[in-house]
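Incident review: delayed structure delivery

Summary: a single-chain prediction request sat in the queue longer than the usual turnaround. Root cause was a stuck worker, restarted by the on-call engineer. No data loss occurred. The affected request and its eventual output are reproduced below so the record is complete for anyone auditing the incident later.

Affected input:
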Amino acid sequence: MENKPVIAGISHGDINGIGYEVIMKALSDPAINDICIPIVYGSPKVAAYHRKALNINNFIFNNIRSAEEAHPRKANMINCLDDNTRVELGKSTPHGGEAAILSLERAMSDLLSGKINVLVTAPIDKQNVQSDNFRFNGHTEYLKDKAGPQHEALMFMISESMRIGIATGHVPLKKVPELITNELLMRKLRLMNKSLMLDFGIRKPRIAVLGLNPHAGDNSLLGNEEAEIIIPAIQQAQKEGILTFGPFPSDGFFGAGSFTKFDGILAMYHDQGLTPFKALSFDSGVNFTAGLPFIRTSPVHGTAFAIAGRGEAMENSFRQAIYLASDIFKNRLIYAEITKNPLRHQDIDIHSDRYDELPPEINTPEQ
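Output delivered after worker restart:
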């Protein structure tokens, strides 16, 4: 079971950005083929253009027509574009957005049909992909739509030092307070708790919840959301058996290193979670869409048009995205085996509790 080959589908993202550079650099590592069978949904012509621009002469794709033809020891490619595809390095163009979506749709089709096991997405430009057929703020919203309304999605940022989820996702900051409800927080906390067990093999996850306002409201002096919404949600989660703590003021929480004491962290809005995460893990962090019936990861960086074609892009985040997707696939197999045969629980290596001391007391705003 644990040695089952993982077929990793890779969407090429925006063809004018650094997607092809980080893909080729990551797949040049022979160790990748020990982890998975990579299939890039892209264009041999576009790949050749980037190889020439980047002076990458020791790497080629194995061109195939379908996932079933993938070679287990090579970097495979399925052509999704026609020969008229035009690359304009460093530019955001409608054609670049169209090419990104063609790749994503083809990879998604194979993922849903079971031809690939996981999806790793290279960065897209959220503006040039907009069309009559694509009206989503990003990959996360698109994937949730594909999974169906019965599934809740969580943007879950993963690195060696932290796992941090975002309660409200890609929304304008001014809309965040009205979106923070007890119902939303409970959905996200249940989802995070389940993902930490299912996808990361943590038996009893400890989750920290950040406050919305400065100083976590400072006893309602700086806002009432903590007292009226966030603390009741934490208390409800605790009653359900979810080990939840907070709300913590985000500045002190990260500044004092408290984040190292938890298995997961729930931030209230995008920049509250992404700013400390990228400051600490920009080169190695991974964006994982938790809560869906399929597995998708991506690097934490964007298209980086400013350095496209220069050979300056770092591929480690993309490589880690491939590793994480493969690990989660195998962890889900293990979890399915455990829940199918509970008596075998003691025979399967699953992470136990990792912290001997309880986290700080809840509801303690910064003084």
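Verification: The CA atoms of residues 199 and 280 lie 22 Å apart.
Action items: add queue-age alerting; document worker restart procedure.
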